[in-house]
Amino acid sequence: MSKLKKIFPYLYVLPAASFITVLFLYSAVFTLYISFTNWKGYGQAEWVGLANYIRFFQDPVLLTSFTNTILWVVATLLIPVGLGLILSVVLQNMWGHAVFKNIFYLPYGISLTITAIIWGFLFSPLGINSLLAELGIHWKVDWLNTPPYNTYSMIMASIWQSTGTNMILFLVGLQSLPKDPFEAAMIDGASRFRTFISVTVPLLKPYTIVVAGMALVNSFKVFDIIWVMTQGGPYRSSETLAVTMYRESFVLANMGQGSAVSMLLTVMVFLFSWLYLRKTIQKGEDA
Amino acid sequence: MTRAIRKTFVQASVVLLALLWVAPVLIVIINAAKSTKEFRQSKFWELPADWAIVDNIEQVLFRTDLGRGFVNSIVYGCLGAGFAIALAALAAFALTNLKIKGAFYWFLLIYSGTLFPFQMYLIPLFKMYSGINLYNSMLGLTLFYIGICIPFCLFVLRNYYMTFPKDYVNAAQLDGCSDFQTFLYLFVPQSLPPFFVLFLLQFTWIWNDLIFGLVLSRDEEVRPVMASLAQMTGMYSGTGMPTLLMGALIASLPTLLLFFGLQRSFMQGLAINVKD
């Protein structure tokens, strides 16, 4: 009886643990295995060793996808985080700040799919270009069909969607900061800009680390915006690794290649997270 | 003097940026209200002469797949978030208050579900689901959404339950409560605020999901709302634009309402995210 009773506590954990094990942990191992095969999604999987990985160095499509991913990561790490930080500081004591906060925050309530539909319309010939023509500017780029403008356009959409979230996170951070250093800076006659650089930024660092870390991890996985706006086209010029993975696996039925792309993505996310954490923790210790 | 000028400049930039930020939403609303004919003939910044809002809503809800997707996603969101919170709460309670060997490793095992990029799960889930008739079924998608929401819920609730005073639990057990009664009558009533915030966050996640909806379903009867919308873009991005934009507006309503209706809870939720 008492032996049986010892098992009871585990029964509380078991449902959650089984969900995770069956759906995700098993899946991760399976993807690793498939990445060494030429599986098509049906029939037998044939072992092909590193062939799917070697293709990264040979296939221009995969190389483009890789460089696009890096571009996305850098752009969405710098702009929405930087802009979010600046906005949070400026809006903290500006007139009408409640209205402005809500405006910048609004896109956070809009999904990435819908963001893509909105900006897909704006970058279509009926959108911005028709406004430019009306203003007498006939510099017409077919935004979504011309690389590299298609990637820039989609990054713009992503910035619009994510800046507000970062701003709110920084505002939460700003509210938690001690007042004394700011008063001291004011008494010393520091300009607002100087105060921002020398007081606000260093004090906000723990928040910046988290916000930038979240932006970093998310930026590697960007899929929705691209799939809806260009499907990675034209001619696969605007794919990122997440889109390439989907196309190879579920459009072209190259499950083996798709799995290898997933693996590369995972390795990149882990590597960057590790480097990022190591660097930020080291810096924290130095300070 | 220069200081005042600089301040004005900064504030003017913010106002300008805010206009830029709100413009896309206004443009969508204006154009979602136009008839197809008027959309073709007018410029996107011109207000509609004939408001075709009702027609377009009718079109979206009854003549596209979106109405069904909307209902499906409400089901997925409620069941997925609800069951995930329930299962995570049970596990969190046991891991913090019952005798379990290697409790921290159990936690790591479950939390590791969020470790990998989601792309790692797509192919195996597709294969697994095809093999056991869960592909293209509401049950299959619901089970998936429950699973994907568990790790984060567990993380938050475990942190929350660790702060519960042990005396509290001991007193309950002295009074003759079984473990499960302790959970049900002591822990659950105390957890309603985090349950609420978690429900909002996870419902939003499920509502906004695109990729798993695309991979795990095929028919409109099963498709979640974002996958239906993405499917529509191809067909409607030409002259059917007002319908598509109206669809986008309707599909944004639940999350926007949640957001602005319950902004404070969301701020709390974001604060939880930061502590993650």
Automatic annotation (TrEMBL), chain A:
<feature type="transmembrane region" description="Helical">
    <location>
        <begin position="70"/>
        <end position="91"/>
    </location>
</feature>
<keyword id="KW-0812">Transmembrane</keyword>
<feature type="transmembrane region" description="Helical">
    <location>
        <begin position="255"/>
        <end position="277"/>
    </location>
</feature>
<keyword id="KW-0813">Transport</keyword>
<feature type="domain" description="ABC transmembrane type-1">
    <location>
        <begin position="66"/>
        <end position="276"/>
    </location>
</feature>
<dbReference type="Pfam" id="PF00528">
    <property type="entry name" value="BPD_transp_1"/>
</dbReference>
<feature type="transmembrane region" description="Helical">
    <location>
        <begin position="195"/>
        <end position="217"/>
    </location>
</feature>
<dbReference type="InterPro" id="IPR000515">
    <property type="entry name" value="MetI-like"/>
</dbReference>
<comment type="similarity">
    <text>Belongs to the binding-protein-dependent transport system permease family.</text>
</comment>
<feature type="transmembrane region" description="Helical">
    <location>
        <begin position="152"/>
        <end position="174"/>
    </location>
</feature>
<keyword id="KW-1003">Cell membrane</keyword>
<dbReference type="InterPro" id="IPR051393">
    <property type="entry name" value="ABC_transporter_permease"/>
</dbReference>
<dbReference type="InterPro" id="IPR035906">
    <property type="entry name" value="MetI-like_sf"/>
</dbReference>
<protein>
    <submittedName>
        <fullName>Permease</fullName>
    </submittedName>
</protein>
<feature type="transmembrane region" description="Helical">
    <location>
        <begin position="103"/>
        <end position="122"/>
    </location>
</feature>
<feature type="transmembrane region" description="Helical">
    <location>
        <begin position="12"/>
        <end position="36"/>
    </location>
</feature>
<keyword id="KW-1133">Transmembrane helix</keyword>
<keyword id="KW-0472">Membrane</keyword>
TrEMBL record, chain B:
<keyword id="KW-1133">Transmembrane helix</keyword>
<keyword id="KW-1003">Cell membrane</keyword>
<keyword id="KW-0813">Transport</keyword>
<dbReference type="InterPro" id="IPR035906">
    <property type="entry name" value="MetI-like_sf"/>
</dbReference>
<comment type="similarity">
    <text>Belongs to the binding-protein-dependent transport system permease family.</text>
</comment>
<protein>
    <submittedName>
        <fullName>Permease</fullName>
    </submittedName>
</protein>
<feature type="transmembrane region" description="Helical">
    <location>
        <begin position="74"/>
        <end position="96"/>
    </location>
</feature>
<dbReference type="InterPro" id="IPR000515">
    <property type="entry name" value="MetI-like"/>
</dbReference>
<feature type="transmembrane region" description="Helical">
    <location>
        <begin position="182"/>
        <end position="207"/>
    </location>
</feature>
<feature type="transmembrane region" description="Helical">
    <location>
        <begin position="143"/>
        <end position="161"/>
    </location>
</feature>
<feature type="transmembrane region" description="Helical">
    <location>
        <begin position="244"/>
        <end position="262"/>
    </location>
</feature>
<feature type="domain" description="ABC transmembrane type-1">
    <location>
        <begin position="70"/>
        <end position="262"/>
    </location>
</feature>
<dbReference type="Pfam" id="PF00528">
    <property type="entry name" value="BPD_transp_1"/>
</dbReference>
<keyword id="KW-0472">Membrane</keyword>
<keyword id="KW-0812">Transmembrane</keyword>
<feature type="transmembrane region" description="Helical">
    <location>
        <begin position="103"/>
        <end position="123"/>
    </location>
</feature>
<feature type="transmembrane region" description="Helical">
    <location>
        <begin position="12"/>
        <end position="33"/>
    </location>
</feature>
